[in-house]
Amino acid sequence: MFLRVPLFYWVVFFLYPLLAIVGLSFLSEGQLDFTAFQRIISRAYYRERLLFTFGQAALSTLLTLLLALPAAQVMATYDFRGKTVLLALATLPFVLPTVVVAAAFKALLGDLGLVNRWLMHVLPLTEHPLPFERSLALILVTHVFYNYAIALHILSGYWRTQSMRVEEAARSLGCSPWRLWLQVRLPLLRPALFSAAALIFVFCFTSFGVVLLLGDVQHATLEVAIYRQVNIDLPTAAALSLTQSGLLFLLVWLHSRWSQADLHTPALQSSTSRTRPPQNTLEKIWLRTHVAIATVLVGAPLLALGWRSLSHAAGPLTPEHYINLTQIHQGSLLFVSPLTTIANSLRFALITTCFAVILGTMAAYWLAQRRKKRRRFPHLQHALFMMPLTTSAVTLGFGFTVVFASASTPEWFRALRGSVILIPILHTLVAFPFVLRCVYPALKAIAPSLREAAATLGAAPAQRWFRLELPLLSHGLFIGAIFAFVLSLGEFGASIFVIRPQQPTLPIAIFRLLSQPQPANFGMALALSVILLAICAAAFASLNLLRNSAPGEIRW
């Protein structure tokens, strides 16, 4: 019976808020009402937000693929020193919270960023020469930085398994480099290109933190429009959220179709037999160029973030911004010292991790039990638990806002609004499917004969679980726990709707400080971003320690 707790949690905290959004969109005083949708269709502003959301996502996807495609060819073809380090560095942006990425690009290309400050000093100028702040260009560059790792890993991983015989045959027939790319390589990479493009488009389509921090009223996506309508017109915000969710579902479905497309591919080969050192000067130049591009693209914003957090407009490097984190400044929107937000985030992340590990493990056992009993629709039940991953964080947070505003909401649910436990409950919605995905395959891999042998030797059920199953599941549990911890630390889109003013998390504090243009606030926001970056990097670095343990287990 207790294994059904994850299903109860899913119904109450995920399905109920989504149904509340649907009801607010279509119902008014108990009757069907399409006024909110008519308002979206009739007003030019909402149509422009929809077109901008699609347009910036399409441009971001195109730029990311154009930049990652030649780099993927380099990674798949050549073997060079530092390749593993470069791939790890390229992966770092994707695991960073969005507010950290936005702060990094503000530190590099913003009005107070390193590039503008350097140009003002060299030229010399009294105003910043590059007006990247609040522009589409800055949003696109940030999206490319954020999604570069996805395209690089998908394309290079697929490319490494393709046979070289097709390219060698094309060259022997006199195929030029351009024709080799257009008529041989791109058709062979079509499944990976479609999959990467769909995934990147989804991430850019649902981009919230980056657009909110780096854009303005004219550069706002559907999710930013939902956030701004919450305190103005709840039915319109609900209709926008439902529209965005429907489009997101369609995009996820297209990604699923394209990623599983049964397209013809040539014979595969081992990735180790394909890679080789560069053989001539042209190949060395090609290799070094794209290694330099990848290094600058990934490293420059992160280095700028660290440098600006230690610099001051009036002098050399100083820890002043970090010292200011311990103080409550007059007129601040944080209500607490910025350093307190670190403790808040760590506390929420630890509670979320515990909730996610417990619920994810229970869900895995429940699904395995139903699979063993050959119940109907096992894949549908698994998909239901994974739905929070395909739902926008803004929609999740907005759903709680709608429930709290409804007069029909039960008092026990309404009481959560001022509770400390609300943020972990919301974060767990996004985190526990990751634990489920990590634990469920390991649970299925445990042979029934092991349990039978333990029972034959007289082990009680509790002993079998602690001495047999838990060590075998510990690998997946640890990975899922790390993901849950980091996701909670960096969660921004849902938290901004329900967070209490006196208990801001790190991402909320960074957002509020960046919203105030004073140099002191900007410096403290960058300092907090560096701290959040360091915590997330340390958490993911702990995953590398897992490679030293035996596959499928952690030594106790």
Short overview:
The protein is 71% helix and 1% strand.
Please give the structural blueprint.
Blueprint: H1 5-26, E1 27-28, E2 31-32, H2 35-42, H3 44-77, H4 83-91, H5 98-109, H6 114-122, H7 136-160, H8 165-172, H9 177-188, H10 190-205, H11 209-214, H12 222-229, H13 234-259, H14 271-274, H15 281-309, H16 320-323, H17 338-372, H18 378-386, H19 393-405, H20 411-414, H21 422-445, H22 448-456, H23 461-490, H24 495-498, H25 506-515, H26 519-544
Antiparallel strand pairs: 1-2
Helix pairs in contact: 1-13, 1-19, 2-13, 3-7, 3-10, 5-7, 5-15, 5-25, 5-26, 7-10, 10-13, 12-13, 13-19, 15-26, 17-18, 17-21, 17-23, 21-23, 22-23, 23-26, 25-26
Please describe the structure with a list of short key phrases separated by commas or semicolons.
single chain, 556 residues, mainly alpha, MetI-like fold, 2 domains, two-stranded antiparallel ribbon, 26 helices, 2 strands, 71% helix, disordered C terminus
